[in-house]
Design goal:
13% strand, 13 helices, alpha/beta
Length: 399
Amino acid sequence: MPHEPMTVLIKPAGPDCNLACSYCFYSDKAALYPDQPRHRMSDDTLRELVRRYMNYHDRTVPFAWQGGEPTLMGLDFYRRAVDYQQLYGRPGQAVSNSLQTNAVLLDDPEWARFLHEYRFLVGVSIDGPADVHNAYRVTHAGEPTHHRVVAAIENLLEHDVEVNILAMVQPANIHRAAETYEYLLSLGVDFLQFIPLAEPDPSGDGLMPFSITPRDYGRFLCELFDLWAAEKPRSAYVRMFDDMLAVVMGYDHPTCMFGPECGRYFVVEHNGDIYACDFFVEKQWYYGNLRDLRFRKIPGLERYQQFRRRKTEGLVECAQCEWFSLCHGGCPKYRVMLGDGPRPTYFCEAYRMFFEHAHGTLQEMAERLKAEQQDRGEVGRNDPCPCGSGLKYKDCCLR
C-alpha cells in the first residue's frame, strides 16, 4: 500500500556529548536510561536500523545522524553504516547522509575525506565570533571550543565537504545580528539556520535565565532579514527566510516549524527506542523499539496522530491571527514549556514583528521569482516530474 515515507533522526550516542553547553536541552535524556552510564549504538542495532529503513523507503533514503554528539561513535561506525546502506540498498535507491555536530573532532583530514567521499552534509553548530560562541559552548573542563570548531570548518571545506551552520540565538548575540551574520558568512558557509534559545526551568518555575525575550528575538529577525533580503555581504540561504519565501510563493511549508502539523519524522535512540521528536524524547511520546515496531505502522499509531494534531489543536486565539497560515502556532516546544493547554507560542510577539516587517518584501520577491520562472519555462508544480517517476513535480523531486 503506498505511503508517504518519514525521515528518521538517529541518536547513535544518545545524549552523550564531549561538550558541556550550558543551554543543551538533550543532555537530561540520560535519565531515561539510568542503568546505562554510557550510550552507544551497537553494531546489531545499527545493522537492523539500516536494513529496516532501507526497506521502508522506495527512492531516496535520508539518514540524519544527530546527538548528543554523533561523532563520539568514531569514524568506523559510519564506515559500517555506509557498508550496510550499500548492502541493503535496492536498485533505483539512493542514500543521503547528514551529520549534525559540534565539529570539535572533525579537524582530522581522515574524517573529512570520508565525509566527502560519501557526500555527507555536515551541519556545524557555531553561534558566532569567539566571545559569542564560547559564552555557552565549552568542554566539560570549561575550556573554550571556538578555535576548534573553526579549524574543523576549514578542514571540511578544504576537502570539499558540504557544510551548513546552525547558530543558537542567545544572550551573547541577540543584539549583534549583523555582526553574527557577517561573521558566519566569512567562514565560507552560506547556508545558515538560526534557532532561538528558550528552555523551561527544571524547577517548573518559568524559564531558564539564558532564555531570550520575544521582543529581542523579533528585533534580531527583522535586522537579519534586511541583511538577507539585500544580499549583504553576499547571497546566502537563511532557512527561516527562504522557507517563508517558498510559502509566500504558494509552496507547502518546507519544515515542520511553521507547518500545519508536526513533521513526518521520528527519533531513533541509541538502543533502537523510537520517539516522536527530538524535542519530545519522553515517555509520553514513546512509540516502541525498532525491533518490535515496523516503520510503516507508525503513521497508524494513535499516539502519532495525537502528536501531529497537537500542533494546532485548540489554538482558537491563534486561528484569528492574520499570520496564522504562515506560522500555525510555531513549534509546540515553545508553547508546551509554558504549561499545559493551548496558547500562543512564547515567541508569538517575535513572529508578529517579523511577519509585519518582512511580508511585503517577501511578496515582492515571490512575484519576481515567479516571473523569472515563467520566462525560463520551468516545470510547474502540477506538471509531470522530469525524472520520469510518473508523479507530479510537487510530489516528487520538488519535495
